[in-house]
Amino acid sequence: MMRRVLLYLGIMAGIVVFSGLFIVVFANSTEVSCARETGKDPNCRITRSLLGRVRVSSREVLAVRDIQLDESCDDGCTYRAVLITAAGEGVPVNDVYTDRHVVMPQIEQIGAFLDGTAPSLNYIIPVQWWVVLLVSGLGLMGIAIVAGSFLRESLQR
After folding, report:
1. CA–CA separation, 22 vs 28, rounded Å?
2. How far is residue 84's CA from residue 86's CA, in Å, rounded to a whole number?
3. How distant, in Å, are the alpha carbons of 25, 39, 81, 100, 122 from that of 90?
4. Helical pair 2-26 and 129-156, crossing angle rounded to 10 deg
5. Do 6 and 74 reside in the same domain of the chain?
6. Are both 23 and 98 inside the same structural domain?
7. pTM of the model as a whole
8. What are phi and psi of 127, to 5 degrees?
9. Domain range for residue 95?
């Protein structure tokens, strides 16, 4: 009996870990802050925050010259914005590929800053809360199914 309880608890723990991993990967907000010194290409900082609160990472991108659309069409097409530096390096604004209509405002606003003369830009890509709700709901549903299966099996004995 103890072995069966540990098995069900292990399955539930796996569901929690799997759901948590998805939330860590896909439930980040991204802030792009750029500053321009006169006569120089702007420098930008890309900061990712878990659930919009806890800083996960921060990266400096020096001498940004352009922003481009990166496209991946393995199984349908997905997109992300990529900052291009003076050295030709491409730095993704967000690691996650998504729909084109989500990425185009990023390219338009950051691109307008790069083409203009404004001294600074602060662009925020908010947390996709529907992802948090979906993953949390599926995790809770998985735990409920495992618990129900355990109870049903226990009552049949």
Report:
1. 11
2. 7
3. 21, 22, 10, 18, 20
4. 170
5. no
6. no
7. 0.72
8. -65, 140
9. 28-126
